[in-house]
């Protein structure tokens, strides 16, 4: 059974920073493309940032230049560094493979950006 455990969320002021982590109990982690997703009430979950097994990254236009995704294959962990946060970044953030697998979704971590 695969577990993806997100952490690092919290409350930040506009312009602030947070760093999210996702620990994966996933065999052959280094072989998979991974991604961060986010969801707000009443909206579909959206892909925020992705990273291939080779470290190639891609970002949603809304976060480009502000967020950075990275991975540590030895620790089976994916990170999301979020800078210059905006109120519209408020959401529950999840990690998963890319493309996502329904049976891999974890609890997510809440990020709230508010003054």
- Main sheet characteristics: 6 strands, mixed
Principal-axes geometry comes out as: globular
Class derived from helix and strand content: mainly beta
**Count of helices?**
0
Distance between the termini: 40 Å
Mean pLDDT: 96
Give the topology string: H per helix, E per strand: EEEEEEEEEE
The overall strand count is 10
What portion of the residues fall into strands of 2 or more residues?
over 45%
- Percent helix among the residues? under 10%
Compute the CA-based radius of gyration.
13 Å
Unreliable residue runs:
none
What is the strand arrangement across the widest sheet?
2-10-9-4-5-6
Query: How would you name the oligomeric state of the polypeptide chains in this document?
Result: single chain
Description of the structure:
The protein has 115 residues and is mainly beta. 0% of the residues lie in helices and 48% in strands. It has strands spanning 3-7, 10-12, 18-25, 34-39, 46-51, 57-59, 67-72, 77-82, 91-97, 109-113. The protein has a six-stranded mixed β-sheet with strand order 2-10-9-4-5-6, with no helix packed on it. Strand 7 and strand 8 (77-82) form a beta hairpin. The protein is globular, with a radius of gyration of 13 Å. The model has no long low-confidence stretch (mean pLDDT 96).
């Amino acid at each position: 059974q695969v577990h993806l455990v997100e952490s690092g969320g919290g409350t930040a002021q506009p312009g602030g920073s947070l760093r999210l982590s996702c620990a994966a109990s996933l065999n052959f982690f280094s072989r998979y493309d991974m991604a961060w997703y986010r969801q707000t009430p009443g909206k579909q979950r959206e892909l925020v940032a992705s990273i291939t097994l080779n470290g190639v990254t891609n970002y949603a236009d809304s976060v480009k230049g502000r967020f950075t995704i990275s991975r540590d294959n030895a620790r089976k962990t994916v990170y999301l560094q979020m800078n210059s946060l905006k109120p519209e970044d408020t959401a529950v953030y999840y990690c998963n493979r890319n493309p996502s697998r329904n049976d891999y979704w974890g609890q997510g971590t809440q990020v709230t950006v508010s003054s």
